[in-house]
Design a protein that fits this description.
Largest sheet: 4 strands, mixed
Number of helices: 9
Strand order of the largest sheet: 6-5-4-7
Shape: globular
Order of helices and strands: HEHHEEHHEHEHEHHE
Strand content: 15-25%
Number of strands: 7
Helix content: 40-55%
Length: about 200
């Protein structure tokens, strides 16, 4: 049985939402099927199959360079603009925040929690009005605030960043807030070891 997306129920699976968001929110780049499979932690055959469906629908463009299959958003499709807006509001936080936070020194791990993560994991409820982000590490608060403002402009919704030290995150039992974050759904943006 296939799981329908709760963030954008028009899509037949969360993977389709993540894939489309990545491609449409990074329209200036093309990604290989291998890169996409690694990013979404699925097999290359799964990504290849989904890309073929999206290409047949005219939503993505493909380019072959030898054995390399490159994929990007087809911005000439009349659905591109409204689809990009829908994707920014639904699956956009994962795509946008991964880019923004991976460029900041001192970010060891980062997670989306709260209503967005709950909808992503299938918990029914209203559409998220904001995005809550937990950053683990010693990143500069000004850099995190700049990233949050940049994400807000791209996503069209408020982004709240809460930073904790790695030591505090490891001993979350002592902090009611961190215990609460751990006990509820979360979506990993950057996990320990992602940048190695």
């Amino acid at each position: 049985m296939q799981v329908r997306s709760r963030l954008l129920p028009l899509l037949r699976s969360p993977l389709i939402g993540e894939l489309l968001a990545w491609l449409f929110l990074h329209p200036e780049t093309s990604s290989s099927v291998v890169e996409l499979a690694r990013r979404f932690k699925v097999s290359q055959s799964t990504i290849s199959r989904e890309v073929s469906h999206l290409a047949a629908a005219g939503l993505v463009r493909e380019e072959r360079r030898g054995r390399l299959r490159l994929v990007g958003a087809d911005l000439n499709n009349p659905l591109a603009r409204p689809l990009t807006e829908l994707l920014a509001l639904t699956y956009g936080p994962a795509a946008v925040l991964t880019d923004l936070l991976s460029g900041i020194g001192g970010v060891d791990e980062a997670y989306i929690y709260g209503s967005w993560a709950a909808r992503y994991t299938g918990t029914a409820g209203p559409a998220p009005r904001d995005v809550d982000v937990l950053v683990v590490g010693d990143a500069d608060d000004d850099d995190l605030a700049d990233a949050a403002r940049s994400a807000e402009r791209r996503l069209g919704r408020e982004v709240n960043v809460h930073r904790v030290s790695a030591a505090a995150w490891r001993s979350a039992d002592d902090d009611p807030f961190l215990a609460s974050v751990r006990s509820r759904p979360s979506y990993p943006i950057l996990e320990a070891g992602d940048r190695s």
